[in-house]
Amino acid sequence: MKNVLEVNHLVKIFGRFTAVDDITFSVGEGEIVGLLGQNGAGKTTTISMILGVLSKTSGNISIFGKQMPEERQDVIGRMNFSSAYIKMPWRMKVWEHLYVFARMYEVEQPMDKVNRMIETFELEKYRDKLGGDLSAGNMAKVNLAKAFINYPKFVLLDEPTSSLDPEIARSVHTYLLKSQEKYQTTMLLTSHNMAEVEELADRVIFINHGKITAEGTPEELVKKTLPMTRMRLYMKDGQKRTVEYCRIQKLPVETKDRYVEIDIKEEDVSHVLSDLAHKGVEYTEITITKPTLEDYFIDELKGKSS
């Protein structure tokens, strides 16, 4: 897999404040990578430098093998950007806004592409609405439609679905994954919705106080740092035997009324359940909860702030 984006030793300093502190990473062709971190971690500053709208203090950025921002004109037509925080002109209609960008990117049959994007992002009822009359959610959809108007090979997505209701966000996820599969579209996205990142991202990069603190697939990061799942049993008979077994096996265990909660490695679940069955333990309900990327995110922030 060749890299579409390469970032090497990137630094951005504002006065005495270092917003981005010597970060290095890459994004391969057709890959979706999540750039994650709390507010002020340096995500948007990094994206702004990749776009070439904010100058870097030092370091190197290349897109499609071209140096940024020096060769920005050579790559800008093959990439695009969307942010939930950008507003379209208040006195311009939705279709006009998209048409302008289609013409700027020299899209063939620009009006046909505008109509397809309006349909794809369910903007039919709003095509003649002015920017100033749009809700935050519809503005976010317009920004996403604009981001894919030019069949981009590389898209930067800053909180793309933060203002969307769950049903529309789901349809956006489907579109992004189809774009990746059909066109090998490369994407770098930021989001505070960890479930969204788990669904979309092939790999995630955590940034904290301007530094990269972790990198890997969502599954790798969660299992590496939070290896335990939680098994919750509603006991019919054998609650005391279950607690005693857990103490002997040195498994963390808690009881809440008729419930027993056990922290356990996922691969040991079947073995423990078999042992409990041999002890005559009976339960009427079982829930197994795996740690999520959100759990990892919270744990990561706690660890870096302690």
Question: What would your notes on this structure say?
Answer:
With 306 residues, this protein is of the alpha/beta class. The protein is 37% helix and 31% strand. The protein is built from 11 helices and 14 strands. The chain has helices spanning 43-51, 72-75, 94-104, 110-120, 136-147, 166-183, 194-200, 218-225, 239-248, 269-278, 293-305, and strands spanning 3-14, 17-28, 32-36, 58-63, 66-68, 79-83, 154-158, 186-190, 203-208, 211-216, 228-237, 253-256, 259-265, 282-289. The longest helix has 18 residues, at 166-183. It starts with a strand and ends with a helix.
Mean pLDDT over the full residue set: 93
User: Major beta sheet, specifics?
Assistant: 6 strands, mixed
Q: What is the strand tally?
A: 14
Q: Given the structure, what is the number of helices? A: 11
* Main sheet: strand order: 6-7-8-3-9-10
Helix fraction, binned, reads: 25-40%
Per-chain topology:
Layout (H helix, E strand, L loop, with lengths): L2 E12 L2 E12 L3 E5 L6 H9 L6 E6 L2 E3 L3 H4 L3 E5 L10 H11 L5 H11 L15 H12 L6 E5 L7 H18 L2 E5 L3 H7 L2 E6 L2 E6 L1 H8 L2 E10 L1 H10 L4 E4 L2 E7 L3 H10 L3 E8 L3 H13 L1
Parallel strand pairs: 3-8, 3-9, 6-7, 7-8
Antiparallel strand pairs: 1-2, 1-4, 4-5, 9-10, 11-13, 11-14, 12-13
Helix pairs in contact: 3-4
